[in-house]
Amino acid sequence: MATKQPSADDRRAEPRRRAAGKVWLRDLQAPAAAFAGRLMDVAASGFRACHHRVALKSGDLVDFEFAGHSGRARAMWTRIVGGKVETGFRICQEGGSFRASGSTDPKI
Question: Which of 16-25, 38-47, 49-58, 89-98 has the lowest mean pLDDT?
Fold first, then answer.
């Protein structure tokens, strides 16, 4: 059985798995306002999420929580298409005490 080879534009170093569910994020540049997003896929060292935080840019640090995982991650890239924001995050540190209570919960 042939395996699909990644394209030359695909710079991912590790395989990703599709994921679903909510991810809670807190931009450390504006820590008072946590926000919700939708998890799109996960890898051993990162994840991709769709959200509405247009101010989030490459290099920004966030606290995150999803499906029993929490910690700190860095936004590696962000793209905005049709009013939705998609960001790829690299996990810097697993664990932590981020709890998303009181966060806004927009429809994603």
Answer: 89-98
